Amino acid sequence: MNSYANTISFPLHTPGRTAKASPADVRRNNRSLVFGLLFPNGQLSRAELGRQTGLSRVAISGVANGMLEEGLICESGYDASASAKGKRGTLLSIDTTRLHIISVDLSQEHLVQGAVTDLLGTPQQRMEMALGPDNDINADMIVQLVDQLRTDIDSDAIIGIGIAVTGVVEDGVIRESTVLGWHDLDLQSMLERRFGFPVTVSNDVVCSMLAERFFGKGDKSMIFIKIDRGIGAATLIDDVTVIGQNHAGGEIGHISLDPEHGRPCPCGKRGCLETTVTSPVIRDRIRHAGTPEQQLDVIRASGEELASALAMPIGLMDINDVCVYGPPDIVNETFLEATQRRIDKVTSSQFHKHTTIRRCQVGSDIALRGSAIDVIRHYIEAK
């Protein structure tokens, strides 16, 4: 089984596809090439798009005109770099005014967050549902939230619904979400039947990685770590998401660093990373530390434990960029410096370039924006 998903950057294609392409495949590929050169903030003329894609002037004109009519791109000025003797080319860019996405983030504790976004994942309007300590997220809540978000939007302008959720997701089915208590829930089919829009359901850490890749400082090959109630990871290799044969490629939390003497983990093992490097566990250890210096030692130890778990995938896949997302009282300079020191110690060699451990650059809407990107990705592929 292929352990890679379709490429998450644009242009989009399925790796390894060698069969003869149909006209529809060619059209989708050309759209993806053009969209990829413009997304998120590119401005290029038709002539420059032709040069960079290798497509003929006729092909570029047909693709661009179709995307303009569809609302994916817009004309945004004239090429100032063109020769004064010739006609200046019209610049094309992503249209953020006509098409919309409904995004829902189910990864936060005591909160369901939804938004209507533009094609850059920027929330245009938002809605939140607060949950009490005894309230569980259920499908009816999601339906209600989406129903309210779409009320004031022309249905023809909605290209899809994106859901970011904790746990293992396979083809829109939530196979296992221990946080939400869901097993084999086909959320995608349920929402598509209810609303009639295409629906994508993705792991929240993968969504967050997409947002960091396009709107932060993410490299085309990176490891993204999210520290929260649990700890999750997502990996990108040459702009392809590593999913794994069982769609659980980001389950770093259940790597056991001390299988003999570590703390018991709900998964049945001992010493899993999730028993030591999560926000609740670290905060509890800080509360029980005696002095400010001992509290810093807790943060340093947590960073070193994360580095121990990351050393093998960094060396195995030759990754130079590791992005960590988490609350600022945990993922602070002390934590990042400790992680960096240990990574440098255990991975540096003549074969491996320096790996940088850094803080995520995208803010609190990261999962919402990432789920919007996931919708766009599927939309471009499907048309």
UniProtKB/TrEMBL annotation:
Species the sequence originates in: Bifidobacterium leontopitheci
Family in the record: Belongs to the ROK (NagC/XylR) family.
Top-rank taxon: Bacteria
Name of the protein in question: NagC family transcriptional regulator
